[in-house]
Amino acid sequence: MATRGGVSPLVIKRLPRYYRFLENLSKKNINRISSGELAIRMGLTASQIRQDLNCFGGFGQQGFGYNVEELKNSIAGILGLNKSRKTVLVGAGNLGRAIATHFDFGKFGFKIIGVFDKKESLAGQIINDMPVRHTVGLENFCRDNKPTAAILCIPENEAEEISELLINLGIKGFWNFSHYDIAINHKDIAVENVHLSDSIMTLSYNLNEIE
Amino acid sequence: MATRGGVSPLVIKRLPRYYRFLENLSKKNINRISSGELAIRMGLTASQIRQDLNCFGGFGQQGFGYNVEELKNSIAGILGLNKSRKTVLVGAGNLGRAIATHFDFGKFGFKIIGVFDKKESLAGQIINDMPVRHTVGLENFCRDNKPTAAILCIPENEAEEISELLINLGIKGFWNFSHYDIAINHKDIAVENVHLSDSIMTLSYNLNEIE
DNA sequence: TAGATTGTTAATCGATTAACAATC
DNA sequence: TAGATTGTTAATCGATTAACAATC
Q: Which of B103, B183, B205 sits opposite A12 (nearest CB)?
């Protein structure tokens, strides 16, 4: 698919939400939707929806609206959900284990091919049919299997070193649950930071405002 | 603390990140920082930092900059991290368990006082020194203990019903890990949605752009 | 005092909303 | 054809950046 280049990050952030709502409509066997109707359901304006979608092409039909199934599939393509990116999970503590078990990576274009932890006692334990490997083997494993994405469920103080290592080993994208901000030093690497602590602090602030 | 009213959500979203960086400076025994220096470290502009902070008051000193410890504590106050909000965790599956175990709620102004799940087999299991209770007891528990916040680690199809119930029981804030968007129907309720699937789809998109 | 850096106002830039002609 | 709704351009609104006077 051709590079679409400079689409605003705000639009991109909304794309998965569109996809989620379209999936729901599809499940409810609704096969047609107008920007106006979708706007009401999503709490947006019709204008914004049309502007957003038109960053990627004209998916609608005048006088009719959008075909749900078609639009859903188009967005899936734009998001790359049809891919199967080889992915390593680093950090098999509570959070790493939960993510690995709870999450259907295949649905989102990823495939976990290896799980690593530096804790000796975890080595050999089975998570999602995969043995936990010791971090010493990470380098060779990556050379042999060439994963392109990594999930980091490790503490802040290990994140810098591990992410540098992984970048050198060819990892292009990080799903980062540590508190360390990877993106700052690396331009051509994709990073999604899931800062749970930032999220709960925002909730705390907003709770203050209500009282 | 007086209500500051209409501070932009974008500023609020940045506040926890300021706090995180200030904590780091504090740990490194740096006790003074200028907006220019902080801007470099955070990848922002000095202007933006000064504008952001001045939404809440003048924390700096001309010719000097900001006192790290002082600013950190001010932001902690603004975020309400000093509180201890009684909180229930609903959903004790993989994710709920990981969150409960992995996360230092006290640091962020929350305190888990009860864990609930509708699965009979989990009842009585101990998480973080607390027994998992069956969801049937949620209503009475809330009447007796008056929690004001809830963490939802339940599937989408249960989220609507449970969130409605909890709102009626006086819950004012949700940390929502389900795919259901609570906020849409309720105005005076604070919601932080952690949509992990949205996050990984954004990563997928950004990976596509790199290739 | 002179130098540095803030707080704040003004200028720019980008994102959202509104409007409407094109068209199914 | 008439009605509906898109794609797209123009207007508005808000957020970021730049500039500078105030002041520590």
A: B205
The pLDDT confidence band at residue A1, using thresholds 50, 70 and 90, is very low
The size of chain B, in residues, is 211
Contact B204 A109 (CB under 8 A): yes
Distance CA A121, CA A117 (A): 9
Task: Give the count of domains, chain B.
Answer: 2
Q: Which nucleotide is nearest to A58 (CA to C1')?
A: D7
Q: A141: number of CA atoms within 13 Å, CB side?
A: 23
> Measured between alpha carbons, how far is B198 from A16 in angstroms, rounded to an integer?
5
Q: What whole-number distance in Å separates Cα of residue B145 and Cα of residue B137?
A: 12
Q: CA torsion, points A118, A120, A126, A127, in degrees to nearest 10?
A: -30
Same domain, yes or no: A193 and A90:
yes
Mean pLDDT of B93-105: 94
Q: Are residues A193 and A91 in the same domain?
A: yes
- Closest C1' nucleotide to B33's CA: C5
Token look-up 């000796």 returns A120
- Compute the Cα dihedral for A145, B95, B108, B129 and give only its sign: negative
CB A125 within 8 A of CB A146: no
Instruction: Please check whether residues B95 and B67 belong to one and the same domain.
Output: no
Same domain for B65 and B91, yes or no, is no
Which of B16, B179, B202 has its CB closest to that of A13? B202
Interface test with A, best of B204, B209, B211 (most A CBs within 10 A): B204
Q: Work out whether strand A110-117 and strand A85-90 pair parallel, antiparallel, or are unpaired.
A: parallel
Please say which residue of A78, A112, A132 terminates a domain. A78
Rounded, the Å distance between the CA of B62 and C1' of D22 is 9
Q: Please report, for residues A9, A55, A172, B48, B98, the alpha-carbon distance to residue A186 in angstroms, rounded to integers and kept in the order given.
A: 17, 26, 10, 22, 30
What is the Cα A208 distance to its own chain's centre? 30
Model's pTM, two decimal places?
Answer: 0.94
CB contact under 8 A, B173 and A97: no
User: Residue B3 above 50 pLDDT?
Assistant: no
Query: Which tokens belong to A22?
Result: 């379209």
Q: Are residues B188 and B165 in the same domain?
A: yes
- The pLDDT tens digits for B139-173 are 999 999 999 999 999 999 999 999 999 999 999 99
